[in-house]
């Protein structure tokens, strides 16, 4: 029995112009491309993946198959257990979608941003049985898109920075010994929980996309504006992906 070749292709933040030439070539090598559906409120995430395929896919033999992405159970108290159970369910959904196309030897998923940065696609792939051979195509991350949108470097000269989540920032506070913090996966505007004096923020939603919105300034002055912008944008689109950089200014 032949071994499945699974390719995880970083597609940036949904802008087809973010695709690398390597990603375009990889898309056109596939027998099957799987596109997850995340429910009615996030239907445009699947549409963006389809639009990317419409623009760059020239291989008429490549099939595009959609599948329903399982919803994470929020009833379980233990966060890590919720995530592990969810990843198990997603891996099963992948296998069920693949099983419907037994002749496909080269299968790909289009990964938002990059498979390496706060994305669990690689962890889910590790759950597949039998294990496929794995190829990873890097993509532009939301961090790249954010710094480009604001035309800033992510760190000061020779200085470290930390990439963390909104949940950890809220629960643990500012990381010790660090002046620059990149915050991802923040559904509750955790920057509102910080002492804002002396802190600057560079924030962006839908960075790199045509819907992009950005805001920057002293945190004490713009935090309420960002919270309002975020809520209004989420209301318009039904979802939002945002990211921000915080820096203690000397």
Spell out the key features of this protein.
250 residues; alpha/beta; 33% helix
Structural write-up:
- With 250 residues, this protein is an alpha/beta fold.
- 33% of the residues lie in helices and 23% in strands.
- Strands 3-2-4-1-5 form a five-stranded parallel sheet, sandwiched between helices. A five-stranded mixed sheet has the order 6-7-10-8-9, with helices on both faces.
- A hairpin with a 7-residue loop joins strand 8 and strand 9 (213-218).
- The chain is globular.
- The mean pLDDT is 92.
Given as residue ranges, the uncertain stretches (5+ residues, pLDDT < 50) are none
Q: What percent of the residues sit in helical stretches (DSSP H or I)?
A: 25-40%
What is the mean pLDDT? 92
Shape: globular
**Strand order across the largest sheet:** 3-2-4-1-5
Q: How many DSSP E strands?
A: 10
Radius of gyration: 19 Å
Helix-strand string: EHEHEHEHEHEHEEEHE
How much of the sequence lies in strands comes to 15-25%
Tally of helical segments: 7
What is the oligomeric state here? single chain
What structural class should be given to the helix and strand makeup? alpha/beta
Amino- and carboxy-terminal Cα gap? 62 Å
What is the makeup of the main sheet?
Answer: 5 strands, parallel
């Amino acid at each position: 029995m032949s071994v499945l070749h699974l390719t995880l292709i970083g597609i940036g933040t949904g802008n087809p112009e973010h695709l690398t030439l390597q990603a375009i070539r990889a898309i056109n090598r596939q027998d099957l491309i799987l596109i997850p559906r995340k429910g009615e409120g996030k239907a445009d995430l699947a549409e963006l993946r389809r639009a990317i395929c419409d623009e760059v896919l020239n291989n008429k033999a490549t099939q595009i198959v959609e599948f329903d992405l399982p919803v994470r159970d929020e009833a379980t108290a233990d966060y890590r257990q919720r995530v592990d159970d969810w990843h198990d369910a997603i891996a099963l959904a992948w296998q069920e979608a693949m099983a419907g196309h037994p002749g496909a030897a080269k299968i790909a998923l289009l990964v938002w941003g990059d498979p390496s940065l706060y994305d669990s696609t690689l962890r889910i792939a590790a759950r597949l049985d039998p294990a496929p051979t794995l190829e990873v195509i890097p993509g532009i991350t939301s961090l790249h898109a954010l710094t480009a949108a604001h035309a800033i470097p992510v760190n000061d000269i020779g200085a470290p920075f930390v990439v963390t989540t909104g949940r950890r920032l809220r629960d643990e506070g500012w990381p010790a010994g660090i002046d620059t913090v990149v915050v991802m996966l923040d559904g509750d505007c955790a920057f509102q929980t910080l002492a804002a004096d002396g802190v600057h923020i560079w924030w962006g939603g839908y960075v790199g996309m045509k819907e992009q919105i950005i805001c920057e300034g002293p945190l004490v002055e713009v935090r309420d504006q960002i919270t309002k912008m975020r809520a209004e944008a989420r209301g318009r689109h039904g979802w939002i992906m945002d990211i921000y950089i915080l820096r203690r200014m000397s």
